[in-house]
Design a protein that fits this description.
Shape: globular
Strand content: 5-15%
Helix content: 40-55%
C-alpha cells in the first residue's frame, strides 16, 4: 500500500513503459514463486530468474536487486490487479485472463478503467481532494477534444485530480491551443513558457517554503526543481499514452500523430464513457477492493454484450450458431479482426512497391529522429519494415510488430524474436532496430541481437545475416558485433554475421537501391558477404565501420 501524502497530480505507471511487457514477467513470477511470501529473498530470486530470461532487456544487474524486483511487480502488475502479493504470491482472476493471451487489449482496458485515486492500494488524504479514474477521464478528454498531444497531457491533464475538474481542463487546453495559434514567435518556446507557468502553479506551496529537493537530485534550486517536474510530467504523459494505447480504444492521427479515438472502436468508447462510473469507488476494506479489482466481470465493456457481438459478426458476414457462448463469439470476432489486419498489411505491401512511398518513408525517418512521433522505437521498427518491403525482391518480409485495426503501429516485436525477418532466394536476413544509444545500446541490444541471430541460424538451411540499425551505433555495440563475427560461438551457431548501420547510412542504403534500380537479391547477399569478409581481415572495429560507410554507395553493382 502506498501513502501518497505529497501527491499533487495524477500519475501513470512508468515501469514498464509498455504494459504488454508485464505479461512474461508475471508468468516468471507465478511459475517459480506462486504460494511464496513476497519478501526480500523472493524478490531477489525473482529478479535473477527475470534477468536470465530470453525476453529481459539489458545485461547489467541492478545495484539494488530487491528494489528492482519491486519496481517490476508492485507497480502495474499489482496495482492493476493481475497479481496478489498478500498473504502470498498468487495469480488473480484477471491475471489468468491476461496470461491466456486472448484479447489482452480487453483485459487491460477493464483494469485501466478500474484504476482509481484514491484506493486502498493508493492512500491519499481526504483533504487532497482526489476522486478520479485517470485512464477513464483521459479517454473522455480525447473524445471531447477530438485529439490531444502528449504535451497537453503533461501540462494540463495531470492536474485532473477530480473528475469535476474535467471541464476546466478542457477549457485550459482550448485556450492554450487558441493562444498558441495566435502566437507569432517560436511556438516551442511559447509552449515551454506555459509549461513552466503551470508547474509553478501546481507546486506553489513547495516553492513558497523553499521545499525544492527532488528524489532525482540533491540540487535544490528552483530551476532544477521546475525542470525535474517537467521531466516527470512528460514521463507520466508518455506512460498514459502507451498504456491507454494498449486498449486499442485510441490511435494516432497519421499526419499530426496526436492521440485520437480509434475509428474502429468509436462505439466501444462511447459505451465505456456512458456506463463506467466516474466516481472513485469506496471500499471498507482492502479485501473488498481486491474482490472488485480481481474479478474479470466487475466492469463490463460493449464486447461483453451478446447482441453487440452478434451484430458485429453479421456485419462481417461471419456465420455463428445461436447457441454459441459469448466467449466463442468473442473468439470469432478476434479471429476476423486478425484477418482484417493481415489484409491491411498486404495492402500496405502492395502500396510500397515501386518506391511509391519513398518520400513518405524518408520524411518519417526525419520525424522519428526528431522524436515527433508518439513512440519512436515502434515507428522506427515499422518504418524500416516499410523500407525493406519497398526495395523489394524478398520472398517475404515479416515485421514482428503489431498493427491495430486501422493500420496504425501498436506494439514493437516481443523480446524473444527479431524485430523484422526477411527471406530471399538462398539466404535470410533479420533486422534489429533500436533507438537506444551509448552504453545503454550495448547493454540492451548486445546479447539479444546475437541470440536472435543464433536462434534463426541454427534452424536455417541457408545463411542468415543480421542488419542492426540505430540512429547512432555505440562504440560498445560496434566492438561487440565486430568480435562476435570473428569468433565461433556455439550458442549463436558459429560465427555471427551482424552488420551495424546508423540510420543515416541505412537511408543512403535504401536510396542507392532506388537510384540504381536494385532488382537482384544476390547483390544484397554479395554485399553482406563482402562486409563480413572485411570484418575478418580488418585491424579493428573503427576501420571496419569506416569500410561499411564507404561501401554503401556501391552496394548495388
Amino acid at each position: 500500500m502506498a501513502t501518497l501524502n505529497k501527491t499533487k497530480t495524477v500519475f501513470a505507471f512508468t515501469s514498464p513503459r509498455t504494459i504488454e511487457k508485464i505479461i512474461p514477467e508475471i508468468q516468471v513470477l507465478i511459475d517459480s514463486f506462486a504460494g511464496q511470501e513476497w519478501n526480500t529473498e523472493t524478490q531477489i530470486a525473482f529478479f535473477h530468474k527475470l534477468f536470465n530470461s530470453e525476453f529481459y532487456e539489458g545485461n547489467k544487474m541492478p545495484d539494488n536487486i530487491s528494489l528492482a524486483a519491486r519496481d517490476r511487480i508492485t507497480r502495474a502488475p499489482k496495482a492493476l490487479g493481475f497479481i496478489d502479493l498478500k498473504p502470498n504470491i498468487a495469480l488473480t482472476g484477471v491475471g489468468k485472463k491476461l496470461l491466456s493471451g486472448k484479447r489482452t487489449n480487453e483485459v487491460i482496458a477493464k483494469q485501466l478503467f478500474k484504476f482509481q485515486l484514491p484506493s486502498p492500494y493508493h492512500k491519499i488524504p481526504d483533504n487532497r481532494g482526489f476522486n478520479v479514474k485517470p485512464y477513464l477521464e483521459l479517454l473522455r478528454l480525447v473524445k471531447v477534444l477530438g485529439n490531444i498531444s502528449k504535451m497537453e497531457i503533461a501540462i494540463f491533464f495531470l492536474q485532473m485530480t477530480h473528475h469535476k475538474k474535467f471541464n476546466s481542463v478542457v477549457s485550459a487546453i482550448k485556450k492554450f491551443r487558441n493562444d498558441k495559434s495566435k502566437h507569432k514567435g517560436n511556438r516551442k518556446t511559447f509552449t515551454d513558457g506555459i509549461f513552466t507557468k503551470e508547474i509553478l502553479k501546481v507546486y506553489a506551496k513547495e516553492i513558497k517554503v523553499n521545499d525544492l529537493k527532488t528524489r532525482e537530485s540533491c540540487e535544490a534550486t528552483l530551476t532544477k526543481f521546475v525542470n525535474t517536474k517537467k521531466s516527470n510530467h512528460n514521463d507520466y504523459a508518455d506512460a498514459f499514452v502507451r498504456y491507454l494505447r494498449a486498449t486499442q480504444f485510441i490511435s494516432f492521427d497519421k499526419k499530426t500523430f496526436r492521440m485520437i479515438i480509434a475509428p474502429s472502436r468509436v462505439a466501444e468508447v462511447d459505451y465505456v464513457l456512458k456506463n463506467v462510473e466516474r466516481n472513485a469507488k469506496k471500499f471498507k476494506t482492502e479485501a473488498n477492493y481486491k474482490k472488485y479489482l480481481f474479478n474479470p466481470n466487475s466492469l463490463l465493456l460493449l464486447t461483453d454484450d451478446r447482441k453487440y457481438l452478434e451484430k458485429q459478426l453479421e456485419k462481417l458476414s461471419v456465420e455463428f450458431a445461436v447457441t454459441e457462448s459469448i466467449e466463442s463469439l468473442k473468439d470469432l470476432l478476434e479471429t476476423t479482426e486478425k484477418e482484417k489486419i493481415s489484409a491491411v498489411i498486404e495492402e500496405t505491401e502492395v502500396a510500397l512497391k515501386n518506391y511509391k512511398e519513398f518520400d513518405d518513408i524518408i520524411d518519417m525517418f526525419g520525424k522519428i529522429q526528431k522524436k515527433e512521433v508518439p513512440d519512436p522505437p515502434l515507428y522506427l521498427e515499422w518504418n524500416i519494415w516499410r523500407a525493406i518491403v519497398m526495395i523489394n525482391f524478398a520472398k517475404q518480409v515479416r515485421g514482428n510488430f503489431t498493427l491495430d485495426l486501422d493500420g496504425i503501429p501498436l506494439n514493437t516485436a516481443l523480446g524473444n524474436m527479431p524485430d523484422i525477418e526477411a527471406e530471399y532466394d538462398g539466404f535470410k536476413m533479420i533486422l534489429e532496430v533500436t533507438m537506444s544509444s551509448g552504453n545503454k545500446q550495448y547493454e540492451m541490444e548486445g546479447e539479444p541481437v546475437a541470440r536472435h541471430f543464433g536462434k534463426i541460424q541454427k534452424n536455417s538451411t541457408v545463411p542468415v545475416y543480421c542488419l542492426f540499425v540505430a540512429p547512432k551505433i555505440s562504440e560498445g555495440a560496434l566492438a561487440h558485433f565486430f568480435n562476435l563475427n570473428r569468433m565461433n560461438t556455439a550458442a549463436y551457431g558459429g560465427k555471427t554475421r551482424i552488420v551495424p548501420m546508423n540510420l543515416s547510412q541505412f537511408i543512403s542504403f535504401i536510396t542507392i537501391a532506388k537510384d540504381k534500380s536494385f532488382s537482384n537479391s544476390n547483390f544484397l547477399k554479395s554485399y553482406f558477404d563482402d562486409v563480413i569478409q572485411k570484418n575478418l581481415s580488418m585491424g579493428d572495429e573503427t576501420v571496419w565501420s569506416q569500410q561499411i560507410h564507404d561501401s554503401i554507395p556501391e552496394w548495388v553493382n
